[in-house]
Q: What sequence folds into this?
């Protein structure tokens, strides 16, 4: 039996550049129906605040990680999400490989945050993607970052509209920020291509998806409001994990289960705003049975199965190539004939356009 839990693993408090403190963020996570969250303030690891936060609506497990980057780097780039290291890591930020090494040595797991970004020159927003590629040993990639994805689509639109006047750009950006669902369509194509390339090279690379919530304030003349509230973002792009044991309410036990599932890739990235992704499964069976993140021996009877909560477009992808696809169904079965890393995607219509909906971690056939 497996147990499913939904969470979000990239957000900020006033310890760095967010607007809400941990307890208030936990309240929003409970409202959004999340089971766990990991707060990742910039270059500060906060201890003493982990644990279950409860109210009459439910409870959520709050953990603390860190988003590490070299604050002296110009331009800013190469942000790293560290979970479970249990120590301050910002002192290693100037050397990305040493940062990865120290995270691993401390028993933590690390993900490259929003690896591909665009500049928003009109708003002096630099490209915060990953720039230091001579690295190895990281756990995985943040394949979908809601806020980064919105920023990229806004940059595309402003470029296409050729808006030269800053005021026109700000008006257009404000309108977009009030209805961001129109702009968010899925992970960056470059990030998915990078992931597939790394998998084709035989690397095991786990994927997560997150909000990057800050509670962003916006002011335009007399109008002042919070755009992208935490609760809104917690209903959007999340990471769903599968565990062999249920969470039992004990911090150390539950933290260990959650971080292990994330690090091993027993998880998928779901755009829950388009439709809840609860109940999705991608599994494999041969001589062994396995789920996302597992290694299974390839044999004559091996099969891969995708099961989605509602009808959608289903795909199974090996190293960037679609090997099986079906439209408007809830199930897809594929008999693989080659070794490699196989992952599943689900595409769903939402707000008049096809959107990326579910991105599974791979099953590794050998």
A:
């Amino acid at each position: 039996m497996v147990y499913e839990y939904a969470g979000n693993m990239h957000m900020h408090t006033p310890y760095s550049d967010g607007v809400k403190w941990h307890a208030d963020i936990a309240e929003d996570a409970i409202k959004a129906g999340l089971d766990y969250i990991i707060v990742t303030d910039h270059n500060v690891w906060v201890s003493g605040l982990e644990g279950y936060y409860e109210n009459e609506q439910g409870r959520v497990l709050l953990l603390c990680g860190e988003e590490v980057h070299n604050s002296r780097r110009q331009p800013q780039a190469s942000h790293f999400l560290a979970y479970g290291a249990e120590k301050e890591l910002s002192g290693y930020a100037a050397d990305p490989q040493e940062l990865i090494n120290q995270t691993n040595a401390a028993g933590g797991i690390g993900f490259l945050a929003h690896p591909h970004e665009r500049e928003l020159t009109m708003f002096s927003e630099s490209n915060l993607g990953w720039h230091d590629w001579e690295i190895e040993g990281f756990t995985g990639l943040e394949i979908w970052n809601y806020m980064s994805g919105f920023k990229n689509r806004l940059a595309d639109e402003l470029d296409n509209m050729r808006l030269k006047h800053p005021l026109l750009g700000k008006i257009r950006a404000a309108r977009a920020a009030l209805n961001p669902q129109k702009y968010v369509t899925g992970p960056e194509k470059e990030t998915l291509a990078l992931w597939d390339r790394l998998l084709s090279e035989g690397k095991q690379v786990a994927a997560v998806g997150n909000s990057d919530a800050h509670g962003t304030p916006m002011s335009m003349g007399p109008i002042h409001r919070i755009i992208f509230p935490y609760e809104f973002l917690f209903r959007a792009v999340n990471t769903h994990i599968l565990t062999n044991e249920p969470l039992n309410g004990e911090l150390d036990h539950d933290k260990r289960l959650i971080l292990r599932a994330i690090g091993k890739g027993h998880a998928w990235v779901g755009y829950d705003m388009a439709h809840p992704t609860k109940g999705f499964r991608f599994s494999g069976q041969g001589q062994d049975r396995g789920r996302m993140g597992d290694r299974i021996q390839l044999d004559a009877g091996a099969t891969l199965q995708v099961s989605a909560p509602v009808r959608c477009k289903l795909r199974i992808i090996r190293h960037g190539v679609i090997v099986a696809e079906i439209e408007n169904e809830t199930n897809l079965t594929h008999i693989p004939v080659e070794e490699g890393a196989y992952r599943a995607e689900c595409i769903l219509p939402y707000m008049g356009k096809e959107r990326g909906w579910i991105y599974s971690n791979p099953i590794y056939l050998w």
